[in-house]
Amino acid sequence: MKTAAVSHEQDALDARFMARAIELAARGTWRVSPNPRVGAVIARQAESLAEGWHKEHGGPHAEAEALRDARARGLDVRGATLYVTLEPCGAFEGKLTPPCVEAVLGSGPRSPAATGRRRSSWTGSTLSPPRSAP
Ligand SMILES: [Zn+2]
User: Fold this and answer.
1) 102/2 Cα distance (integer angstroms)
2) What pLDDT, on the 0 to 100 scale, is given for residue 17?
3) Contact in structure between 107 and 45 (CB atoms under 8 Å)
C-alpha cells in the first residue's frame, strides 16, 4: 500500500487548524444538545479562510456555517481544505437541517479525510456522499 507523504509543515498546519476547529466547537457547549458540539475551519495552505461552529440545536451545522462565512467574505473555497471535528452529516428522517456532506461536496473544499492522507481518524471515515437517501 502506498502512503502519501505529509510534510512536517503540513502536519503543523493540520494540527493548528484542527485545534482551532475544536476551540470553535466548544462555543456550542450547552446550546446544541442533543447534537454534538462541532467546529469547522476552511483553510488554504497556511491561511484560514473561514470558520463556523454549530451554534444551537436545530440551527445550521458547523460546516454550513463555515461555508456561509466563506460566501460572506466572497471567497472561493474550491481546492481548500475543510477541517471539521465530526464527519459531515448525511440525510436521515426527522433531520432538522440539510445534509452537510452535500453542501461540502458542492462547494469545493476537500476534507483531509478525503485526500487519502492520514487524517481519517479525525472523522472516523472518508468523506463521501450518502449512497442512498432514505
Ligand atoms: Zn451536518
Assistant:
1) 29
2) 94
3) no
pLDDT in tens, 2-24: 555 668 888 899 999 999 999 99
Decide if pLDDT at 134 tops 90: no
Do residues 45 and 26 make contact, with C-beta atoms less than 8 angstroms apart? no
3-state SS assignment for residue 8: helix
The conformation of residue 51, written as its DSSP 8-state character, comes to: E
Cα 7 to ligand 1 centre (Å)? 30
Q: Where are the domains of the chain?
A: 8-121
51 annotated active-site: no
CATH topology of domain 8-121: Cytidine Deaminase; domain 2 (3.40.140)
Torsion sign over Cα 117, 82, 121, 102: negative
Residue 43 sits at φ, ψ, to 5 deg, of -135, 155
φ and ψ of 80, to 5 deg: -75, 175
For residue 30, the model assigns a pLDDT of: 93
Cα-to-centroid distance, 45 and ligand 1 (Å): 24
Centre of ligand 1 from the C-alpha of residue 8, in Å: 30
